[in-house]
Write a structure and sequence with these properties.
- Helix content is 22%, strand content 29%.
- By secondary structure, it is α/β, with parallel strands linked by helices.
- The relative contact order is 0.15.
- Helix 5 packs across helix 6, helix 6 packs parallel to helix 8 and helix 7 runs parallel beside helix 9.
- The structure holds alpha-L-arabinofuranose.
- The site of alpha-L-arabinofuranose has 10 residues, from loops.
- Belongs to the glycosyl hydrolase 51 family.
Length: 506
Amino acid sequence: MTTTAIINLDLPGPIISRHVYGHFAEHLGRCVYGGFWVGEDAKVPNVRGIRADVVEALRALRIPNLRWPGGCFADTYHWRDGVGPREHRPRMVNSHWGDVVEDNSFGTHEFLDLCELLGAQPYVSGNVGSGSVREMAEWVEYLTRAGDSPMAALRRAHGRDKPWRVPFWGIGNEAWGCGGNMRAEHYASLARHYSTFVRDQGDNKVYRIAVGPSDGDYAWTETMMRSFDDLAADPVAPAAPFQALSLHYYTMTGSWSDKGAATRFTEDEWYVALSRASLMEEYLTRHSTVMDRYDPHRKVGLVVDEWGTWWNVEPGTNPGFLYQQNTLRDALVAAVHFDAFHRHADRVVMANIAQTINVLQAVLLTDPDSGALVRTPTYHVFEMSTGHHDAASLDVHLRDVPTVESDGRELGLVSVTASTKDDGALVSLANLDIGSPAEVVLDLRGRTAQCRGARILTAPTPASHNTPHSPSAVAPAGFDGVREHPRGLLVELPPHSYLTAELQLT
Ligand code: AHR
């Protein structure tokens, strides 16, 4: 069967925010310590304690934002413990993740230094679960206030004169779970309360992100949206205490007690993973529909600030560290998510993969012994997609898509999205079929186009992955199989592959 993708090149839709390609760094396992941060005395080349190779790799992704310090950790974190001379910082126990001692050597200044090195915008998650309104308000003041104030003075005493710009602020994390096991009504009141004190300082405008639902918890979304209805006399945002709701959804093939293995999976588990990843589309549609009732002009965003695969940890590693390998299957899970974000560009303003290094669906892995840095297959999907950042989404209509039944759903095996910027367009195509190629006609309408070049990500087996010994087993390669066709272009995608084609519009 030949699939047709009708792409209207002359009808640009909503802008795909570059922030949907965002990242997440929690104090969890080896994400911060050993991932981003090695300390100034480490043998690994570093800039003020931050791994230089990690900065280089993430800059190549044009990393738009970085969420920190959690996750569940955020609701146990007290920011004053992580400022001032390192040798005087108190220690604490990271009770969520491995029960290990956290020495607070990576704190506020180190995080903002990292963001500056990366060229990424900071997204700070404040502590609602075990913090206070005052603590959160003072953190905002410490970070963003110019001029004279007690917190600005403390920041200066710690060596930083200029305030930082912190555009994104989380009002807690997973309040329905590790953030306090709250009921929706209770958290909704707290979110209004805390948000009132997360103030814009000078021209630092804060985009407040309240805890939204997990998976398909539409009742939570309804409660949150209803909670500020009285403040929003008209649909323009300033009256709203927060500007966005978060959404968390993880892909696994099993259950929370046995999530499935990262690299050893059956054909059935291949499809279950992709079918469950495709649920993101359904969640976005349904949550957005609930939000539409209160916010028909879509001023309130959805921030998918935790998404990705969650597998059983690699044998022999600390179960509390959530370290897992990453295969071509993970890469295609990422492609399925990005396609969903592109299609919902009018509502999804940001997304953060969980997590950037050494935790869950990481884009980078570091070897604890040799220090080697490995780019995962997921990294390459991010890199191949940079052309979608801040481009206008294009409407894509698919016809004759082969399907498979998996996990009680019909999974379409070909996924295509496209965007346009200036006189170019980028088309992403994924063939989710584990064993068969897919033929796709790009039926290009509205403008004429030539293919400027294409790249493909695939490998001999669906479980192929990268290691320090074989760092490029899965890596993008040039692809010359995009041919002219009477209706546009014809692409033959190998099995289990992801492809991007750059078009020149004329
Ligand atoms: O990303 C790992 C954890 O998953 C986060 O800390 C938490 O928010 C979620 O449950």
